[in-house]
Amino acid sequence: MRSYRLRRRMDIAASLLAVGCVLVALTPLVSILWEVIRNGAPMLSWEFLTNRTTSGIGNAILGSLQIVMYAAVIGLPVGMLTGIYISEFGNNKIGSTVRFFNDVMANFPSIVVGLLVYAMVVVYLDVNYSIIVASIALSIIMIPIVASTTEESLKMVPNSLREGALALGVPRWKTVLKVVLSNGRSGVITGALLAVARAAGETAPLILTTMFSYFWAASPTEPSAALPTLIYNYAMGYSSLAVDDAMSQAWGAALVLIMLVLSLNISVRLLSMRRFKKKHKEARKWRTRLSLKG
Amino acid sequence: MLRRIGRTGDRLFVYLAGLVALSTLVLVWLLVALMISDSLESIEEFGFGFLTGREWEDQRNVFGALPFIFGTLLTSAIAVAIGVPVSIGIAIYLSELAPAWIREPLSFVIELLAAIPSVIYGLWAMGTLRPILVNSVEPWLVKWLGWTPFFEGTPQGLDKLAAGLILAIMIIPTVASVSKEALRAVPDSQREAALSLGATRYETTRMAVITYARSGIFGACILGLGRAFGETMAVTMTIGNSNTISWSLIDPGQTMASLIANRWGEAEGLQRASLIEIGVILFAIALVVNIFARLMVGRVMKSVPTTGGGL
Known about the structure:
The structure holds two protein chains of two kinds.
Chain A: H1 4-40, H2 46-50, H3 58-89, H4 93-106, H5 110-124, H6 131-155, H7 159-167, H8 172-183, H9 185-201, H10 204-209, H11 227-235, H12 243-293
Helix pairs in contact in A: 1-12, 3-4, 3-6, 3-9, 3-11, 4-6, 5-6, 6-9, 7-8, 9-12, 11-12
Chain B: H1 2-38, H2 40-46, H3 49-52, E1 56-57, E2 62-63, H4 66-97, H5 100-115, H6 118-145, H7 160-184, H8 188-196, H9 201-230, H10 233-238, H11 256-263, H12 269-297
Antiparallel strand pairs in B: 1-2
């Protein structure tokens, strides 16, 4: 048996090692945020945000917004309905199959999703590289995320609510839409926002489906620049700009993109934390009331 | 009358939701079939030789996938070798050691690593990580480990080591959060039993907790591996894009995903079919890895976190 002092020292060393691991992971996070702000902030100006490439990133911002918006229009309803089905009617073979492949799909490499959509839309339907093709690719990425968060938040709704509504003679579909969904609402919204944030940062599928353009896109059937593809093209030197100019514009675009993505993520977290606290408060209120009544 | 309307509504709603749920599944598998048929030109041309071909020459129309399979495996191995120990350390800290008030905020901050778009990781690696690698890390590695085949050559900063490091950072949030859940699922009686026998906290964690949670942790590592396989943009921007097979980590290379991103714009005809075939191989690997990870993780968690996927 080793001495107690040695074992004690091993214990402290192991704890320090674990703390060290946390610091190792936090270093790149802090460094990325710091570098993006340091290099990107001097670029921000009204002209930079509204001019089209190559003197600004206006068309890339608009392109990103359009692509993500169309993707949300396609992906969110489909994902939510899938989640509702798995949670409310999925206690059978179909439900468990859908759930299983949904989880598998959620972790597909996104470049493969880009290839899949290219294989259908560009090759077979003969549609050109455009905003709408990119939206279809991003919607396929969003669907499993939305479906699984919807399922999880509906599962949290207590069964007594469903039973109560059904006992009052409300048909099942109305119970699901009016009672279950409205109780699990905040979780569903959280999932939708997370999926939008994830889609906004996707780059690989865009390279395969919308390419790049230096002009304003007149309609969704035209190719367009987007923030992630702009960053990629400028950083790799695939542009007519001088290397330094391209790099600093890429940093500026990165700042805009990271603000968009992180603000979505952080607001989701604050929302769910407030929900959590509110529930606690209510529970405490009820407990005190009950105890007052004795 | 009212009851009948209610029943038809019920049936309609169930069918509609079921149809939508199934249709995405069917659609995705249809797309997979279409993708395979798009790559037929290349499959017929090269057959199984595609997997062992070492050349990618668009002048002579000869394409082979071996350098990219090699690059994918090597960079993912670096990522797992560095990323997994760090992630397990984080998971242990978050589940066993950290004071209660810090757990929630800290795991949120770690998960923010997964929220950063991969193209920004690439930009950061080119702008910030590369000078550090070229000026201090790689010369040091060459000086002390230059006699091994892994560190031959001159430091360039855009190479397999850089790609592996970036991948290591990117898999941390996935591996750490799934491992943390696996550790959390260990019943407290395990810990109490070990502690009551006089074990220190380290011994308790090592013998009673990690042993109990090992299949979940293993599943987490497989998930991280799947993420590293498919990661595209950050790798394309850091690996240096060279179609050669070299064991040296400070030589440039290419992965399957980065090849597709890199060559897509210029590729036509047979080369495009070959790129799609690379995509098919990548898809098959990702499918196997994810199903395996799902089965491993499924024992401790109901659903796999959807943070992965190689943005």
